[in-house]
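Budget justification note: compute hours in this period were largely spent on complex prediction jobs such as the one shown. Inputs:
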Amino acid sequence: MAPSYFIRVTLNFIFHMTGKKNRPHTIITIDSTLRDGEQAAGVYFTKDDKLRIATALSKAGVTILDAGFPIVSKEEQDSFRAVAGAGLKAEIFATVRPDNHEISQAKELGAVGIFLFFPISRILSGLIRSVSFAEFQTIIVDAVTHAFSINLKVMVVLEDAGRAGSGAEEDTIEKLQALGVDSFIIAESVGALTPWGMQQKVAQLVKAFPKIKFGIHCHDDYGLATANSLAAIEAGAVYFSGTINSIGERAGNASIEEVSIGIKNLLGLNIDINTDKLVEICHLVEEISGMIVPPIKPVSGSNTFKCESGLHARALLRQKGSYEPFAPEQVGQSRTFALGKHTGMEYLEFLLDQKKICLTGEQKERLLTQIKGFQEKHKGTDLRDFIVKCRSFYKSHAGLSDDLFMSMVEGVS
Ligand SMILES: [Zn+2]
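Corresponding output:
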């Protein structure tokens, strides 16, 4: 890391190391793109799509893949079996509810472990369960006992933990720890917490259960998924669950690319994923999912390391890192400059020099004036047309249309 980048993060390191002695060295990534990512309205992965994404993630170093929710459909089961049988280095887990049939099915399809969902908030527990909290805890105990009896690893997902009632998590963890469960995922299913609230919650749980490994899974409803994930990890979570390009339910999930680079650069911790593979994987998921990566998306956006402003370009040409948070190569990007209204003379001279073109001072001034004025005279409607097309595309690709639905209804009537 160049000194110019390092200076920016020194304060974080000092804060981070103070009073946090039992920090793990490497944070383990759980990819949820294949399951939660596909739950984004309008996103559908074929078996081949899932295999391509899973292979890329495994090659990049992701330790655990949530390869799907097999009970959803026959197609989901086929895809899951294919990913589990692909000989990947990553461990393949299935998402299941506390139901012995679903758990056995995960095993038969080749899962080495399960994410066992337990809706812990009052609002979800009231809607999903028709039994009391205590009775449901008994169901979870039975499910864990069954999973262990068929040699599955178990991570219990405390769904909607951000809105869990006081003491609900502790009581559940205590009961399941006695059975041998050592990993729990705090699922911020609707983005209810601020980073400060998250930090407090995870710190309390880590303190109360020092032998348990906690993970974090955040949604981005308030644009806080990255901040909340980092806050949880700083408070002691050792697993990070997210999706590539943030794709997922509603506003999406914590972005693997954002959080993993934050873990490395802001928290100074290791992570299993090779960050220089991130952008390649982001592009793959963008193409397969049809969910466009915004140009200004951190880490993977096409504008993220592109500079037009004369002042910033001048600084960057003199000192890498002056107007960059980290080296673009760290995530598989490269630094580029754009010509436009904000271009300055120093970048123009750099460009001419690169192209071995020699102009007089007066010629350069005239050229710069032309560059700065070009967009004013030539702005067309192509940008607006593109955006209108995109909106219409997403409108028509958010699941099956009403007409199609009605023709299916007629077909079965
Ligand atoms: Zn989720």
